[in-house]
Every structure is written in structure tokens, then in C-alpha cells.
Specification:
Layout: E1 11-15, E2 18-22, E3 26-32, E4 39-47, E5 50-58, E6 72-74, E7 77-86, E8 89-91, E9 101-105, E10 108-112, E11 120-124
Antiparallel strand pairs: 1-2, 1-11, 3-4, 3-9, 4-5, 5-7, 6-7, 8-11, 9-10
Length: 130
């Protein structure tokens, strides 16, 4: 997931102690709900030193998984526009859910937090100009 080698890096995302060089400011975060076992996806953009949710999708509904405002059902997913801006995301890494988080960017995916450990913090890199 290192676009810097090709000279096309436009954004940087700190993932815990690691740094990902992205060729776009966009990335997707997905996971399976620990109780309902339903897939959830969120599209994020690095912008102005923060993370902005641009869209979210859930493949069904259940306890704690209500579709967002203005949701539409399309191709088996509830989809809705994002309306959240945060300085960072903190992902729990309990190891008790059977799976962790999947972060996809630049056409590649990285699994995070599948094993029990410290929470994983996602945030724009210091000095990122996106």
C-alpha cells in the first residue's frame, strides 16, 4: 500500500505506529458486526488535517446497526451519505469478535485489530496537506 515508490503519493495516514502513503485521500474501512454478523463499510477522506466520512453502508440491520439518515436500499445494502468529521478514528482490538477491521486504499487491503491488543488509531499524518 505504498504509492510513494511510484511518485504518486498525495496523502498520508498514520495507522497505529505505521504510516501508509496513499495515492488518493480516500480509503474504505469495513468490518463485521460482532453480534449481528453483518458487514458494515465506511468510506473516508483525509481532508484539512481530519478524517471525513463520505458514505456508509450496512448489509442488513439489527441491534445497534440502524441505517443512517437518508438511507436507501440498493443491491442488498442500506447506503447513506456520510456527515461526520473527526481528527482520528480509534478502532478497538479486542480479538474477541473473530475478525478485525479491513482498511482498503490504493486497490489493496490491510487487516487490522484481529488479535487482542491496544486500540488502533487512524489519523492524518502530521503535516499532511490534504
Amino acid at each position: 500500500m505504498d504509492g510513494a515508490a511510484e511518485g504518486h503519493c498525495v496523502s498520508c495516514l498514520a495507522v497505529g505506529a505505521a504510516v501508509l502513503m496513499l495515492t488518493t485521500p480516500d480509503f474504505q474501512l469495513s468490518w463485521t458486526h460482532s453480534v449481528e454478523r453483518v458487514e458494515w463499510q465506511e468510506d473516508w477522506r483525509i481532508h484539512d488535517h481530519a478524517l471525513s466520512l463520505t458514505a456508509a453502508r450496512v448489509r442488513g440491520s439489527g441491534a445497534g446497526m440502524e441505517p443512517g439518515e437518508n438511507a436507501r436500499f440498493r443491491d442488498g445494502w442500506w447506503e447513506w451519505p456520510g456527515d461526520l468529521r473527526v481528527p482520528a478514528l480509534i478502532l478497538a482490538a479486542s480479538g474477541a469478535t473473530g475478525a478485525g477491521w479491513t482498511l482498503c486504499a490504493n486497490g489493496e487491503c490491510l487487516d487490522l485489530g484481529a488479535q487482542s491488543g491496544e486500540p488502533i488509531v487512524l489519523k492524518p499524518c502530521e503535516g499532511d496537506t490534504q
